[in-house]
Amino acid sequence: MFYQPAKSADTNQTSVYTFKIDSKIGPAIWRTTKKAINEAQSLSADHIIVQINTYGGLVSSADSIRSKILDTPIPVYAFIKNNAASAGALISIACDSIYMSPAASIGAATVVNQSGEKMPDKYQSYMRATMRATAEAHGKDTVVRNSDTLISWHRDPRIAEGMVDARIKIPGITDSGKVITFTTQEAMQNSYCEGEANNIQDMLKKMNITQYQIERYRSSTLDSIIGFLINPAFQGVLIMLIIGGIYFELQSPGIGLPLAVAILAALLYFAPLYLEGLAQNWEILIFIIGLLLIALEIFVIPGFGIAGVSGIIALVAGLTFSMADTIIWKFEGGNINEIFKSLSIVIVSMLTSFLLSLYLGKKLFTARQFSGLALESVQDQDEGYIGVETKQRKLTGKIGITTTVLRPSGKVALEDEIYDAKSEIGFIDKDTPVKIVRYETGQLYVVKARKDEKPQ
What we know:
Blueprint: E1 14-21, H1 27-42, E2 47-54, H2 59-70, E3 76-85, H3 87-94, E4 97-100, E5 105-107, H4 121-136, E6 140-145, E7 148-153, H5 157-162, E8 181-183, H6 184-189, E9 195-196, H7 200-206, E10 212-216, H8 221-229, H9 232-251, H10 257-275, H11 281-299, H12 306-323, H13 336-363, E11 399-402, E12 409-414, E13 417-423, E14 433-440, E15 443-448
């Protein structure tokens, strides 16, 4: 489809829309690109200029940006200020024309892991094919020479592949066993750069555009907030708040502030990831299932077994996969390093939160600020205080009846009084005869009474 922008009253004025890709390529940059190109179309811009200065990033995000640029009816041009390495090279090649500053470079698109180590060939194969297809998308010319039909590509696909794979040798360009990286002059000599420019204005001049109006993409407050929330360091803090909130809620009766903190932290964790396209519905569902399994283990099933372990695994999986860029599973099995990085953040954050919760739980009531929440006086035996057997201790062996459901804790009626009790084994319904089996740390423990044992 041929793009025809709606002209203003001044038909000689060219509308130019520009935005930047100047950080690690990831979901945030992909989101910015979508918004910028959509805004350029809504403004009926004549041209889009992408200012590129990046060492690369996630291939999946770069692939999405590449596709968006190739599918855009408005001509898109790249201005490489300094670097267009790795995924940045892929995005640059997707543009209709490339202009570079005198000291810029483009290339080195080998797929590497978080440590900078080269990934296996299945990853390189995918990247080679993507780079080649992107170069081929800009067309070719048919030349007849000495009765032979020759094909001249606007951008040689072999060069694009050579930016990924050092094994590709191109006479006169590379035979050293290294991936291709072009300087500005080398890119111009090999049709990978249309011209040298010092800035956007100089670039437009060399494009023979003299009368123009530039519109720049401006990030919103929401963009800044989302960028902060998806920072791995802050995500680690949110995970700590989720786990810590759940821990303290289980230590206190009823529903209170700790649970509210855990819920708020979970919303702040998942919401921006969902908006960025990282967290999928099934990943959030796994996290919720994990919480339900843990609650089932604590309140319904005695001890800690399959449900509890499964719940912890599901909880960790939900947090990990939501943080990781799982779109990259197109790489025949996925980016294990990306998953491992996210898993490491989740595990470390959870362990740190658990240890801090234990420490704070012990120190909370001994702090001066909270001294009024707990009794500090000591009843010394020298002052006449003596320990006595409690009434509840004498109830061991007697039969009562539950007045509430025990899940596992609840109420038991015995000798016309109501006592707090806890089921020793499983779930016990209301109005069920129970036997007091022991008294420990201020708590009665009960089991279901036999049929021949009657309440007293």
